[in-house]
Amino acid sequence: MGKQSGFMGGMYAVSEWIAKFSLTNLAWFAMNLPIVVLVLSLLDAADRGEVLILLIPVILLAPAVFFPATAALFAKAREWVRKDYMVENKSYWSYYRENYLQSVAGGLLFTLLWVVVAVDIYYFYESSTILTGVFLVTSILLYVFTVNFFATVVHVSLPFRKLVKRSFFITLGSPLLFGTIAVTNGFLLMVSVYMFPVIIPVFTGAIVAFLSFSAYYRFIIAVKKEEE
């Protein structure tokens, strides 16, 4: 009975986590559906003119749609990592509203940075291998910086400028955190996009947020211990 009870308890815990991840990820995916449709249309674009026409609404929607939705996803991940759900289980939509304004402000900044890097990569792709490599490395740095911003904006209450500075210094301040986020996220995204795209609407975003915030939170705890 003990073994059976333990097995059933384990299965229940696994199913509970699957439900948490999938329901939250589905909410996040639903909020980003307009961007998803535009990106899928981009993949079938016939010429540069069509690409530009489709890119403009993606750029305009990203700050107001993608960033608040993803910040709410990271807020749920923070709740799971810290086990806050055992005390107060807020809904995805509560976190969405709670972090909306700072997420939009971050979205404006980071969308601009991503556009600059993407344009540089596109411009130098055929003319300079070295500069293309430099901007590809910059894109990895910017990706981790963006992830750390999401983790920071849901974890601490600071003015926007300080949130950005804190996220930037955390990105550069820990090679281990940087590598963990870059490698785990890169692996998950490659598997999701190239091998199992069906899991993107159901699990990918939630797993990325959970693993990223877990690494971020361990770093924050370690820093606090060193300061004591």
Automatic annotation (TrEMBL):
InterPro entries from the UniProt entry: DUF624
TM ranges: 21-40, 52-75, 100-124, 130-156, 168-188, 194-217
Pfam families reported for this sequence: DUF624
Keywords on record: Membrane, Transmembrane, Transmembrane helix
Key word Transmembrane helix present: yes
Protein known as: Membrane protein YesL
Organism the protein comes from: Salimicrobium humidisoli
